[in-house]
Write a structure and sequence with these properties.
CATH superfamily of the largest domain: HUPs
Family: Belongs to the universal stress protein A family.
Radius of gyration: 20 Å
Pfam family, one: Usp
InterPro entries: Universal_stress_UspA, UspA
Shape: globular
Strand order of the largest sheet: 3-2-1-4-5-10-9-6-7-8
Number of helices: 9
Number of domains: 2
Protein name: Universal stress protein
Domain UspA: 167-289
CATH topology of the largest domain: Rossmann fold
């Protein structure tokens, strides 16, 4: 008689992290993290960075590089305020949580946040707002957690999230290792969606041994997790990939984009590849990325 193999338990997140700051949009980030923690039964950690020294144009605050005691108190107060708002939301939702205020210089802040992010299943951060003075600082934080943690990152647009009538996710699928990683890390979120679209743009011709059209194998895999997925193909060689993705999301009414993050050293002009960089700067819905 053959062995009986038990089906694996459902994949879930158990340890989440959210970056806290005193921006108005932080509430959207916290709300998304709290909602996921509640659904998954996960612990949520909130981390606020209290900068001990800084460059004013880097973080968007008109302070000199050497902070006085009064200025340092302002920074500490902002961090404590962000933590208090986070704790209030977590208590109201009845989830397990903890919070930290991490004191460090602005130059070390990205590495500090990345360190803590390595010990979580998923990290919530905000999209840098191009209209704010602290854009460069926010971009470095995002770059650090995306490229230096090995963990998936959930990026909330600075314009906020919209309430979708039907929860729908779009996977930007090119079959690459990074896309595979992003999909695998997103499975708990995909399980909560009524519909998942595997978006294939300008697909390559494939021979029969690969099992049909591009994306079908992924749909078959996701079905094993009870995920309702289907392939959507868009052929338009004259339109950039990032524009095609954004157009499809807008037309489909999706509330989540899942994709691999392509990046390289900061020694180059841009930290991320073309499509990744464009999506991060023009995103209209939250994006779950993995590098």
């Amino acid at each position: 008689m053959g062995k009986i193999f038990k089906r694996r338990p459902p994949v879930s997140y158990k340890d989440l992290l959210v970056h806290l700051d005193d921006t108005d949009i932080c509430a959207e980030r916290v709300a998304a993290a709290v909602a996921l923690a509640k659904r998954e039964g996960a612990r949520l950690t909130g981390i606020a960075l209290a900068l001990e020294s800084t460059i004013s144009t880097y973080i968007g605050i008109d302070f000199p590089s050497s902070l006085t005691d009064a200025q340092q108190e302002i920074v500490q107060k902002a961090a404590r305020s962000a933590v208090e708002k986070f704790e209030s939301a977590a208590i109201g939702a009845g989830i397990e949580f903890r919070s930290w205020v991490v004191a460090c210089s602005a130059s070390k802040a990205p590495a500090r946040l990345a360190f803590f992010a390595r010990h979580a299943d998923l990290i919530f951060v905000g999209q840098p707002n191009p209209n704010e003075k602290g854009k460069a600082f926010q971009e470095n934080l995002l770059e650090a957690v995306l490229l230096n943690t090995g963990r998936p990152v959930y990026v909330v647009p600075y314009i906020g999230r919209f309430d979708a009538k039907v929860r729908k996710a779009v996977i930007a699928w090119d079959g690459s290792k990074k896309a595979v990683r992003a999909v695998n890390d997103a499975i708990p979120m995909l399980k909560a969606r009524k519909e998942v679209i595997v978006l294939v743009i300008n697909p390559k011709k494939r021979s029969g041994e690969f099992g049909g059209q591009q994306g079908e194998n992924l749909v078959d895999h996701l079905e094993r997790y009870g995920i309702n997925a289907k392939v959507a193909t868009v052929v338009n060689p004259d339109l950039s990939v990032d524009t095609t993705i954004q157009n499809y999301i807008s037309d489909s009414g999706a509330d989540l984009l899942v994709m691999g993050a392509f990046g390289h050293s900061r020694l180059r002009e841009k930290a991320f590849g073309g499509v990744t960089d464009s999506i991060l700067h023009q995103m209209i819905v939250p994006v779950l990325m993995a590098e």
